[in-house]
Amino acid sequence: MKQKTDLKDYNVKDLQDRLQSRKAEYVKIKLDHAVSPVEDTSKIRKMRREIARMHTELRRRETEVQNQN
User: Fold this and answer.
1) Is residue 69 situated within a structural domain?
2) How far apart are CA 16 and CA 22, in angstroms?
3) Along the 69 residues of the chain, how does pLDDT read in single tens digits?
4) Within-domain flag for 35
5) What residue numbers bound the domain in which 24 lies?
6) Are 47 and 26 contacting, i.e. CB atoms less than 8 angstroms apart?
7) How many domains does the chain have?
8) Percent helix, strand, coil in the chain (nearest 5)?
9) Contacts of 30 (CB under 8 A, 6+ apart)
10) Which residues lie closer than 8 Å to 53 by C-beta, 6 or more apart?
């Protein structure tokens, strides 16, 4: 699994695009799990945490830009 240090390598646009695709993937897995149980339920938790890491990284960059001004 990619750690938060890997997220620093992405620029803001790429990170936002990746976040949107992960969110869509997360919703799909959640719906699939509601219909019939997914074999690897830890995948749901890992995706949720990865999404949170992306949000955190984007927020960190946003506050960094605000502090520079």
Assistant:
1) no
2) 10
3) 455 558 888 899 999 999 999 999 999 999 999 999 988 889 999 999 999 999 999 999 999 989 987
4) yes
5) 4-62
6) yes
7) 1
8) 80, 0, 20
9) 44
10) 4, 7
